[in-house]
Amino acid sequence: DNMSNVIVHSLFTDFDINLFKSGKHYRLYEKLGSHLIEVDGVKGTYFSVWVPSAKSVSVIGNFNGWNVEEHRLNVRWDASGIWEGFIPNVGKGEVYKYKIQSNNNDIWTEKADPFARFCEQPPKTASIVWDADHKWKDKDWMGYRKDKNGLDKPYSVYEVHLGSWKKNAENKFLTYEELAKDLVSYVKKMGYTHIEFMPIMEYPYDPSWGYQLTGYFAPTSRFGTPEEFKLLVDTFHQNDIGVILDWVPSHFPEDVHGLGFFDGSNLYEHPDRRKGYHTDWKSLIFNYGRNEVRAFLISNALFWLDQFHVDGLRVDAVASMLYLDYSREEGEWEPNIYGNNENLEAISFIRELNEAVYLNYDGVQTIAEESTAFSGVSRPVEHGGLGFGMKWMMGWMHDTLEFFKKEPIYRRHHQNDLTFSMTYAFTEHFMLPFSHDEVVYGKQSLVYRMPGDEWQRFANLRLLFGYMFTHPGTKLMF
Predict the structure, then answer these.
(1) Residue 437 annotated among the catalytic residues of the structure
(2) Which position among 316, 370, 428, 438 bears the catalytic label?
(3) Cα 477 to Cα 310: distance, rounded to the nearest angstrom
(4) Which residue from 45, 139, 234, 301 has the least number of CB within 10 angstroms?
(5) Residue 416 CB neighbour total at 10 angstroms
(6) Which parts of 80-192 fold into alpha helices (H)?
(7) Per-residue pLDDT tens for 77-108?
(8) Are 385 and 376 spatial neighbours (Cβ–Cβ below 8 Å)?
(9) Which of 369, 370, 399, 438 is catalytic?
(10) Model's pTM, two decimal places?
């Protein structure tokens, strides 16, 4: 039975492997994961996965009854930790996982593909062999987007959570295709220049905002297929609206099918819990000092810019990456070699990420959600900065809302809440955010945070928006 054999095959050159080991391979999605190809005239799927601590790796799925014996991958002999092989007659739409037996105490893990392009709809957790064919029609936008997307251009960004923005008559999610009609026309009518999606990469928990990712290379299947998500981006571009994605390189969840303890070792996460675990979020933190992990993350950032024509990435929770003592008590963190609290590995990763993005793509931006006074967040790397295009101005948001919620008669005693921002408004390229963080966690929508009766609340809100749009910085609203 030819289904039971795995044919020795590779998409990797020696050069690929050298780049991967040195953390400089930024297109890993072209090699790792599952790829529909033809070998010697036979159609099938090539699988490859990075599991350096494995003693055996099988592809399991419906096509072999989830039997670990049937399709064992071959290990490469170059110490890359990559296991690979071609399985004939496995086609598009096949559901699969990797079953991994570890060298560490023979631990078994069963994992989704870190490079899967499509996932089963949660709560199911398997990966799906897929290619997302889409004929792009946004050539005009891609040609002139650097004129629309520059730091000196107007930005009015609508931040949206696809899971809750609007439901259909049956109270179900709108699909990517439905959103390409409803959401695009709404954003256009409201005069926004950009849309920012809260994470659309696959995440496990329906009611969440989506910041715990399990499928970094897969648009969530809740709303449709990857090519339907391409259609949504394409439709925005044809309407002259830029697309920004939230991206989460700061942490990932401990779900059993996810990246954690992947091959029975701390593969993606830092092995020291003081650097590898977030008590706040009960999540794991990437090991930014490990070359292959840096290559995974930078490849992921470029993947969305390359395959999905995305115009910007808003990087979540940057402060949690920069500081070793972020949300940690005395004794729960260890200073760096200089004796201070900066995470040097994370800082060098961020710089490399931003250099890679700006070098490879014209007219895109990276935006840091960063809440501290860390200096040079949006200064270019060659001038000693972190290299982001913009940084969220969290202090402005906080001070402005503090000022506006007071009855007008008291405001004159608090003018400094308004004037203070001008003392630092030009130290970074700031984005002014009235983000989803301001309406959740028991907070209310902006109009209900204004003082007075209904008429006064709306008048205050108009004033607030007028002030926001005349204040230096790009604008974002949820």
Answers:
(1) no
(2) 316
(3) 19
(4) 139
(5) 11
(6) 139-148, 176-189
(7) 999 999 999 999 999 999 999 999 999 999 99
(8) yes
(9) 369
(10) 0.95
